[in-house]
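Title: Comparing notes on inverse folding

I've been comparing how different people in this forum approach sequence design from structure. To keep things fair, I'm posting one structure and asking everyone to reply with a full sequence. Here's the target:
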């Protein structure tokens, strides 16, 4: 059992929890994730990226969006409650080295997994420019954390209620026009990552994306998370979650994600304000 040490609402549908997990806190590296079960046998296994960790306290930070029954159940837990189990750290960690100028792009809930990567890239001596995107100001998360983890911060909102009006790709194009970065890291909705890669490919800018496919076991056995990368089948849970964005078949990935539909109607109206549950490109 993993005790919840802190719980707070970051935005509508978005919850942050600090959870006791001493071993994971010591071993995790940027880019890795955990799989949790809220309750016992009947609970769904859900992957969440580790947004931060405190090895001294023995805790990890999870940021998640309420989009279905399992995340709604997790969101209902309070400080002092416990999550039944956490498995991790899983996945390959981010390759971190001093490159020069690294642009980190986060869209919606993708800002949470971007945070440890920006931290690690800055600690390695890179200039880190973070571009954060949300539909509206109210749905923007972790601005303060990314400000500390970045050398420069650019914010864009679809409706112009905060920062610049537009999309993360608009901000990226403006940045490239001034100075070509050495690496771009993008995390967010699949369509956002695909569009970022379309911007960077003509400029031959290395682009890493972190994929958020359906997962069950997290060990490469079930095959639910498979994607095609450079013409070959890969498993996001063990071969990723990060891949060369220019080699990912995003169209196939999005079609696979669309085949998974709820088998029963889930009630989570108190968290829900949008057809897809929150920060996304669904309009």
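Reply #1:
Here's my take.
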């Amino acid at each position: 059992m993993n005790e919840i040490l802190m719980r707070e609402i970051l935005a509508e549908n978005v919850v942050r929890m600090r959870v006791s997990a001493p071993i994971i806190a010591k071993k995790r590296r940027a880019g890795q994730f955990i799989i949790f079960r809220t309750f016992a046998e009947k609970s769904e296994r859900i992957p969440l990226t580790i947004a931060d960790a405190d090895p001294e306290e023995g805790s990890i930070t999870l940021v998640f969006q309420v989009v279905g029954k399992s995340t709604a159940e997790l969101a209902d837990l309070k400080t002092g409650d416990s999550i039944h189990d956490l498995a991790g750290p899983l996945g390959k960690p981010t390759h971190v080295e001093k490159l020069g100028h690294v642009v980190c792009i986060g869209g919606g809930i993708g800002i949470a997994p971007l945070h440890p990567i920006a931290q690690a890239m800055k600690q390695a001596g890179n200039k880190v420019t973070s571009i954060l995107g949300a539909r509206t100001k109210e749905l923007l998360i972790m601005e303060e954390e990314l400000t500390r983890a970045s050398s420069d911060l650019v914010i864009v909102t679809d409706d112009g209620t905060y920062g610049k009006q537009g999309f993360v790709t608009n901000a990226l194009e403006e940045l490239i026009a001034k100075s070509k970065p050495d690496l771009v890291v993008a995390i967010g909705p699949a369509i956002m990552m695909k569009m970022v890669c379309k911007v960077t490919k003509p400029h031959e800018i290395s682009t890493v994306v972190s994929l958020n496919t359906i997962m069950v076991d997290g060990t490469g056995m079930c095959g639910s998370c498979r994607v095609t990368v450079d013409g070959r089948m890969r498993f996001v849970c063990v071969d990723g979650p990060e891949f060369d964005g220019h080699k990912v078949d995003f169209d196939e990935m999005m079609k696979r994600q669309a085949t998974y539909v709820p088998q029963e109607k889930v009630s989570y109206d108190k968290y829900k304000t949008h057809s897809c549950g929150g920060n996304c490109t669904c309009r």
